[in-house]
Amino acid sequence: MNCLANGIPEEIEVSPKLARVLGIYAAKSGNRDSSSGLNANGLFFKSSESDLMNLFTESITDLFTVDLLPGNVSDHGLLTSYPVLISQFFDRHCGAQQTENSNLKRVPEFLWTAPTNICQAFIDGFLLGSGAKRISDSGVSMPCVTSSPDKDFLREVAWLASIHRIKATLSQAEAEKSADSPTLLWTLEIGSTPSDLKTFHLQQQNQVNEDNDDAALAFLHKNATIESIDRVPFSGYVYDFCGCDNEAFFGGNNAVLLHNSKVRSLFSAARQKAPSIVFIDEIDAIGSKRNPRDQTYMKQTLNQLLVDLDGFAQTEGVIFMAATNFPEVLDPALTRPGRFDRVVQVPLPDVRGRAAILKIHSKKMHLADDVDLSVIARGTPGFSGAQLQNLLNIAAIEAIRQRAKKVSNKHLDFAKDRIIMGSERKSAVITPESKLATAYHEGGHTLAAMYTPGAMPLHKVTVMPRGHALGVTVQLPEIDRDSVNKSEYLAQIDVCMGGRVAEEIVFGPEKVTSGCSSDLERATQVATAMVTQFGMSDKIGLVAYGPEEREKLSTEGKRAIEDEVRSLNEESNSRVMVLLKKHREELDRLAKALVEYETLDKNEVERAVKGLPIERDPVPEELKK
């Protein structure tokens, strides 16, 4: 930190002592009293704060290598003064001293990336200078509380404390009554940490040890750590608020209903604090398409947002960003050029992205030597970052449950199956007849997936109840895919029909169960998309009808679409009927193996349909118990 010369060092080392002095200054600079005769280059202390004044002046002497005159005693308290250059130094980092019509205090910029001990020293100095009071309850020390009309500054202090895992709460206090007008006060309660509910206690100032500056700390802090600090070139302010229900400044204090006045205040603050970044999360909550039937108040916030977005020049140094999961519902006026005209797509990660995500989340895990994260990444197409993190978490829990020292491929496969197929319902009571019917049903899906050209590769099949299903057949693509052709869509319908066709072949048409309902639903969805969206029907032609457009079609048009969808499903049913009758013996072998082993992977399925024995490692005795 640079400081002017003339007897004062050109550089002042950032230390807890300096941070504590700045904290005391930030607390005391708002206590100007016109009747005290204080000039602009000094602070006013109460008569009972002589030890605090001595600490402040001695620290300045050590830091700036200047001799300060002893404090003057007046009827109002103690006055201390320092050179103009030191006053300018304080004003540059903490803001100018407050007057009746100004509110300029702020947390020094360097504290936002400073270590924990530096930030704690600033908070300690601020609480010492503001005369923070201790709340006691039956002799148990509680968090310290201080009050001030400067809400913005208290909010910055609360956010600084929260960054270092020190609990801080900002709330509105009762207004002070005065002859002129009441003053709105805000209360900052600061103290306990999430990791340790033991609270700090305020030391009596007459116990300050002059030989050890560290003893002047106002709190006995729990040592908190910052896991990581990302340094970026941007050095301005960041305003963050959620479009659904609240507005936040540096993390905020209480949820505030978002309306047009909050939007105006946000844009005004962004201009004043430029360079700044404004980030609006869930913007679809306030930026959805306007409808003439909507009430006026429902459009006021969006209208105000549009007006304010138009009022920015490229040189103002304000960047606006927003996020949504539903870009299609945003009002066109919001996304036109000059407003939110740059769209950044955030798709699901590809195989390299999944491998990198798995590597990050597995840093603190003990993985077995044979675990290859790239193999796991290739076997989890379509997984999001959150699902990959959940996969590793489930695998670690399963490893602990099995008392394993490291997470192995077996545990990772268990976690992947649980995410894809759902949790096993081992407590479900399944009759032998129902289990056999489920085995044939899933066997039909499996053989359709194995022998239908264009079908996705088989991953695993189980008759163990998972979620709401009595059995599950899972297919996974070998690589990430961006497009699907017509034969592959027809193969999807064939696989869906495999379960119902197998039941009809084995048990007869009258014995077909309701377990095919979800299969028919999926098959109908695929067939409808082929007909109405992808132009894959010769009868309907090369057209694309969305849900709204289909509602406007004539009766004949709707009937033609329904007939074509039904035709695709029935043709698929006929193809699968021929396929399974041809492989009836393999269907019986597979159903028998499913009844015996309940869950089979791809290799075990191939051995089962060939009539070969299935080899498995014995289950440990402790897991059987």
Kindly describe this structure.
It is a single chain. By secondary structure, the chain is α+β, with helices and mostly antiparallel strands. It is built from 20 helices and 14 strands. It has helices spanning 16-28, 50-64, 84-94, 116-129, 151-163, 260-272, 284-287, 296-309, 351-361, 373-378, 385-401, 409-421, 432-451, 486-507, 517-532, 547-551, 555-582, 584-597, 602-609, 621-624; strands spanning 42-45, 72-73, 78-81, 133-137, 140-148, 168-172, 186-190, 237-242, 246-249, 276-281, 318-322, 458-462, 472-475, 599-601. The strands form four sheets. Strands 4-5-7-6 form a four-stranded antiparallel β-sheet, with helices on one face. Strands 9-8-10-11 form a four-stranded mixed β-sheet, covered by helices on one side. A three-stranded antiparallel β-sheet has the order 1-3-2, covered by helices on one side. A hairpin with a 2-residue loop joins strand 4 (133-137) and strand 5 (140-148).
